[in-house]
């Protein structure tokens, strides 16, 4: 049998998958999803912006970049207790992963970082999978976060290496890859994906999926975001992302990386329940829940609860892989 999980995909193979007739692509992805995962299960993650706006980077899509006038309220790093009470609310509403985002270019070794370490410890002790997205990290910083109980780190490639400098000029694709490597070395689960609707071509999307699916180990989570066009940013007037493109991306990601959590991320407020259902059919098995992403709106817990009931979906339990491993060892 050909190895089920492959890291040697060629660009040509991915091109063919991505461009196959839409329903054929969805059927193929759905079959793979059924074979590798519990398709009734969706991971529910909650995001919290712990430090908002005022970022020095020039990411063309981002409401938090200081250089664009987006009307985002700048907020210094939140207090630990305040963050933990948000985490508790998210847990009570059924989230099993809590992701803290900071509008930083990179982590600095200062008191703010010490405070984030305390937040990581606190959320971990609550029994949730704790994730951070704080910008670039050194290997030592990644290790410190790991020691505090960090479960996953989100660091997106966003687009292809070729298109990257059309979107961001204040750092390079290699900087991104270096941080991802540092996260891996620290034994932290990798969450890495991208955004569609930045003005990239289909080829750029294919190239990004190629980079992700040929990493020595696939990212454990792959968020697929649709651009939320923000007034004041250079991408404010970009066309709305076609939902079929979102489905195509999700299905291709599922086929290439059968066991990854493929996350239907930003953009859900402009999608109907039927459109989201097609994304789940195509292999999406994770969402961000709660009425705010970092700074922009997201469906409420109640709306998602109703969607889960309707579609017969259930939230994935926390630390599922680890629990399965313990059962295997003890049985
Ligand atoms: N500053 C850190 C960084 O850039 O890595 C962490 C926070 S940053 C806001 C996290 C991710 O959010 C970005 O990598 C990008 O993929 C996504 N994002 C930001 N603005 C977005 C938008 N307007 N639409 C869709 N995704 C967006
Ligand atoms: C990811 O891939 N998407 C999330 C999370 N990782 C950090 C962020 C989406 C942000 C959308 C714009 C905002 O709310 O500011
Ligand atoms: Fe936004 Fe992160 Fe870029 Fe800063 S580094 S502008 S927070 S995406």
Annotation keywords:
331 residues; alpha/beta; TIM Barrel; 40% helix; globular; binds S-adenosylmethionine; binds 6-(5-methyl-2-OXO-imidazolidin-4-yl)-hexanoic acid; binds iron/sulfur cluster
Q: Would you give an account of this structure?
A:
The protein is of the alpha/beta class. Strand 8 (261-264), helix 10 (273-281) and strand 9 (286-289) form a beta-alpha-beta unit. The protein has a single domain (11-330), classed as Aldolase class I (TIM Barrel, Alpha-Beta Barrel). It contains twelve helices and ten strands. The model has no long low-confidence stretch (mean pLDDT 96). The radius of gyration is 19 Å and the shape is globular. Helix 2 packs across helix 9 (243-256). Strands 1, 2, 3, 4, 5, 6, 7, 8, 9 and 10 form a ten-stranded parallel β-sheet that branches. Iron/sulfur cluster binds at residues 55, 57, 59, 62, 64-65, 103, 105, 135.
């Amino acid at each position: 049998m050909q190895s089920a999980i492959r890291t040697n995909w060629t660009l040509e193979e991915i091109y063919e998958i991505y461009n196959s007739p839409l329903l054929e692509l969805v059927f193929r992805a759905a079959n793979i999803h059924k074979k590798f995962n519990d398709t009734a299960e969706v991971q529910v993650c909650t995001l919290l912006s712990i430090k908002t706006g005022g970022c020095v980077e020039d990411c063309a899509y981002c409401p938090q970049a200081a250089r664009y006038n987006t009307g985002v309220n700048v907020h210094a790093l939140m207090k630990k207790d305040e963050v933990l009470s948000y985490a508790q609310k998210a847990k009570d509403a059924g989230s099993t992963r809590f992701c803290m985002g900071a509008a930083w270019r990179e982590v600095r070794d200062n008191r703010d970082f010490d405070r984030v370490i305390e937040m990581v410890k606190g959320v971990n002790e609550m029994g949730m999978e704790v994730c951070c997205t704080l910008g670039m990290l050194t290997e030592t910083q990644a290790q410190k976060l790991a020691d505090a109980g960090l479960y996953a780190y989100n660091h997106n490639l966003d687009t292809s290496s070729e298109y990257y400098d059309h979107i961001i000029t204040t750092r390079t694709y290699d900087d991104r890859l270096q941080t991802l490597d540092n996260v891996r070395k620290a034994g932290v689960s990798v969450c890495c994906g991208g955004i569609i609707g930045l003005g990239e071509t289909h080829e750029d999307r294919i190239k990004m999926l190629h980079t992700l699916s040929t990493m020595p180990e696939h990212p454990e989570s792959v968020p697929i975001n649709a651009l939320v066009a923000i007034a004041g940013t250079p991408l404010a007037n970009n066309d709305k992302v076609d939902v079929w493109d979102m489905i195509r991306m999700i299905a291709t990601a599922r086929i290439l990386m059968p066991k990854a959590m493929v996350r239907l991320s930003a953009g859900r407020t402009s999608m109907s329940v039927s459109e989201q259902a097609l994304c789940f059919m195509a292999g999406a098995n994770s969402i961000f829940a709660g009425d705010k992403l970092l700074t922009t709106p997201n469906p409420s817990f109640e709306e998602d609860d109703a969607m889960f009931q309707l579609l017969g979906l259930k939230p994935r339990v926390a630390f599922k892989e680890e629990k399965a491993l313990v059962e295997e060892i003890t049985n």
